[in-house]
Write a structure and sequence with these properties.
Tumour Suppressor Smad4, about 45% strand, eleven-stranded mixed sheet, 3 helices, mainly beta, globular, about 10% helix, 2 domains
């Protein structure tokens, strides 16, 4: 059952035996995509950070999570944290449209979607207009660490279960921080309560 605002999320339990320890979002998504049968203990990544990076000697936090299903030019892909499309190259954050589908709050140190939760049955869409100037982006980037870059007239933000995007030029595609080439047509949907994971401390050995 997806979590409601203000409700408790997760249970502190003993670390499961025979678990697979995954260090980041991409490893977690890959394990889910291949149907890994072992319990999954997550020790890092943006999902882990959004959950408060829980730590405890010999214990973990068991939580259900939503998963993002993406179709990129017809190719099916899985993400647990975020799907980002932007202009290719280093200037992609500073020019052109940026689409960030967020199942969690963070991309690294940035608090991109302050209201996002990985088990509420929705994702948060943050859509930066191509018309946003370099100066505006610079000011917004300085506020990203605290999540105070929104609201902004050139940053659309909404909560959704499914979205489809068509781009007039190839966009660089990133799933859970890993480059997946370029895309012209992108669809993303959320799968509520897709699986259960265990959140552990970074040096957890199971």
């Amino acid at each position: 059952m997806t979590v409601k605002p203000g409700s408790a999320w997760g249970d502190v339990v003993t670390a499961p035996e025979g678990a697979l320890v995954v260090r980041n979002d991409d490893e977690l998504a890959a394990a889910i995509e291949r149907g890994e049968s072992r319990p999954l203990v997550v020790t890092g990544g943006d999902l882990h950070r959004t959950a408060g990076s829980p730590a405890g000697a010999g214990t973990v936090v068991r939580v259900p999570i939503d998963v993002l299903n993406a179709s990129a030019d017809g190719d099916a892909m899985t993400a647990v944290a975020h799907v980002v499309a932007r202009r290719p190259g280093r200037s992609g954050w500073w020019r052109g449209r940026i689409v960030a589908v967020m199942n969690v709050e963070h991309i690294g140190a940035w608090d991109v979607a302050p209201r996002a939760h990985p088990n509420d049955g929705r994702f948060d869409l943050v859509d930066v207009a191509a018309s946003m100037s370099l100066r505006e982006r610079w000011y917004a980037s300085r506020r990203l660490r605290t999540g105070t870059h929104v609201p902004h007239p050139r940053i659309a933000s909404r909560r959704s279960r499914q979205e489809t995007f068509t781009f007039d030029r190839p966009m660089a595609l990133w799933l859970d921080g890993v480059s997946r080439g370029t895309v012209r047509s992108l669809s993303v949907s959320v799968v509520p309560d897709a699986t259960e994971i265990y959140l552990g401390e970074p040096n957890e050995h199971v």
